[in-house]
Design goal:
Elements: E1 7-11, H1 24-31, H2 33-57, H3 63-77, H4 85-94, H5 104-112, E2 117-123, H6 127-136, E3 150-152, H7 163-172, E4 183-187, H8 190-198, E5 202-206, E6 227-231, E7 234-238
Parallel strand pairs: 1-2, 1-4, 2-3, 4-5, 5-6
Antiparallel strand pairs: 6-7
């Protein structure tokens, strides 16, 4: 499908545009440099695990609450004290100011002048949490106008990769379930890629670690991304061709 005014590109936020590991700087103020990176990684692990468990139990808790509870889980697992109310509030506020990955801002600048695509944010976060991140992150806020909408799972009360969240995205951007293939997901999270592919969306995986696609849950084309990027704008492979040199990835959507 060639890019046109109806090509929706849905960007995941946490772990794709914003680095959840960048919270380590704030964690270091409370737990020391030595523990900060480990706590950050553990925090993210349980933040995601909690969403999957809630999906399985057919329950919903707002992502902001999940984020706070998973922080407590992470610090206890690392034999650290639960942060005080003041420290906890400081850490939660810092989540609104996560740093972007280095490759994000240059690519967003190119989208700002590209009328052939419609970029939106698509996130597990609450509307308030995601809006705060988009509009208050020092790195992301100068480019917030690139995004035509902020779409979250809050209304549907499910989390990625539940099918309902991707159908909710389609509804919000004016697409039917028969038009799922007209939308692209861009995500650094393999579970998100597989979830999007399961409902018929096109999916671009951001493989900043360079380890290649190893997720083996779903066999065949529905279990792999359509495009693989080393960073935003740097396509290295798609399902139809061998490796690419870095080039504008929109030119490969056909």
């Amino acid at each position: 499908m060639a890019p046109n005014e109806n090509t929706i590109i849905a960007f995941d936020l946490y772990g794709t545009l914003l680095s959840t590991e960048s919270i380590a700087k704030e964690l270091a103020k409370h737990f020391g440099e030595e523990k900060a990176a480990t706590v950050a990684t553990t925090w993210r692990k349980y933040q995601l695990e909690y969403t999957w468990r809630l999906n399985s139990m057919n329950q919903y808790i707002p992502f902001s609450t999940i984020t706070e509870r998973s922080l407590h889980h992470a610090v206890l697992e690392n034999n650290l004290p639960i942060p005080s109310t003041e420290a906890g509030s400081s850490l939660m506020s810092a989540y609104d100011s996560l740093s972007t990955f280095p490759d994000v801002v240059p690519e967003l600048k190119s989208f700002a002048n590209n009328p052939s695509v419609t970029p939106v944010i698509f996130s597990n976060g609450t509307q308030k949490m995601v809006s705060n991140s988009v509009y208050h992150s020092p790195d992301l806020s100068p480019h917030s106008s690139v995004f035509k909408d902020i779409i979250t799972v809050e209304e549907v009360k499910r989390f990625k990769p539940h099918p309902d969240v991707y159908y909710h995205l389609a509804e919000k951007v004016g697409k039917s379930r028969e038009q799922m293939g007209e939308m692209w997901l861009v995500s650094g999270n393999p579970f998100d890629i597989v979830g999007a592919k399961a409902v018929g969306m096109m999916a671009c995986w951001v493989d900043r670690g360079g380890g290649g696609w190893i997720d083996g849950l779903i066999e065949g084309g529905k279990g792999i991304p359509d495009l693989v990027m080393r960073g935003l704008g740097e396509v290295v492979q798609d399902e139809k061709h061998d490796a690419y040199e870095a080039k504008p990835w929109e030119s490969l959507i056909d």
